[in-house]
Design goal:
mainly alpha; MetI-like fold; 11 helices; globular
Length: 271
């Protein structure tokens, strides 16, 4: 290999690494900035005047913020569980459907994903109004479940396509009922995809604003609606954001670490 070729490869590697670093800085630098200024002693978002837990104390003593966070977590958990169950069952049904039916269903499933949030939000609001359903935490939760389901289906379906259909059929030939074949054979194989879909659904529900704004009632608001309704910026939001980032990071680490440790333990037992 000539020296010119090696030089070009080094330059290509350098620019590729530099581009990756810039992208990571663009994504994570604002998050680090918010977390840093959550410990700022003053209200300034430009000058760090000293380390303090002042805004964390204010966050804990702010009942409106805590209530909004409570509603956000409750709705996100309910939406995640329901959309994961419904989306997984729907994905299994779609994978077994005929090609034409599968294509039509997938195109319909892609509509909420490709549509702007405002279109989905107005559509759900008009649906509730036409049915004369008063907007409340129930309509807000139903709306979150509705727009989370397509993301779960899109996460689970590719994994289902990789499965061997003969495995489930062999289990039923050996005496397993369809339900047991689903629980004991299919679900363990698509578990990583289900977990990914659940995490996506949780994050989509947790930070949603547009759909929540149009489908929530006057008596309930999630954290994004609370921040939007603030008359002036409250630095306690920085503290709340830092807590959320830490909690989400811990969840992601555990979600990836637990399956890894379990697989490692199973490999040791097999050896």
């Amino acid at each position: 290999m000539s020296e010119t070729t090696l030089t070009r490869k080094r330059e290509h590697h350098f620019f590729r690494s530099g581009y990756l670093i810039l992208v990571l800085l663009f994504i994570y630098l604002p998050i680090a900035y918010v977390m840093l200024f959550s410990f700022n002693d003053s209200k300034s978002m430009i000058k760090f005047s000293g380390f303090s837990l002042r805004w964390y104390e204010e966050m804990i003593n702010n009942p409106d913020m805590l209530e909004s966070l409570k509603y956000t977590v409750i709705i996100a958990v309910i939406a995640t569980v329901c959309s994961t169950v419904i989306g997984t069952i729907a994905a299994i049904g779609i994978s077994k459907a005929r090609k034409l039916i599968r294509t039509i269903i997938l195109e319909v499933n892609n509509l909420p994903v490709l549509n702007p949030d405002i279109v989905t939000a107005i559509g759900l609001m008009l649906l509730f109004l036409s049915m004369k359903v008063r907007r409340s935490i129930v309509t807000l939760t139903l709306a979150h479940i509705t727009f989370c389901i397509p993301y779960v289906i899109l996460s689970v379906l590719p994994k289902l396509r990789q499965l061997d259909d003969n495995v489930a059929e062999a289990a039923m030939d050996l005496g397993a009922t369809p339900w047991k074949a689903l629980i004991k054979v299919i679900l363990p194989q698509i578990y990583p995809a289900i977990l990914s879909g659940a995490l996506i659904a949780f994050s989509m529900s947790f930070d949603d604003f547009v759909i929540s704004y149009f489908t929530a009632g006057m008596d309930v608001q999630n954290i994004s609606m609370y921040v939007y309704s603030m008359k002036r910026f409250n630095p306690a939001v920085n503290a709340l954001s830092a807590v959320i980032v830490i909690v989400v990071t811990v969840i992601l680490v555990l979600a990836n670490l637990i399956p890894y440790l379990r697989n490692k333990k199973m490999n040791k037992e097999e050896q």
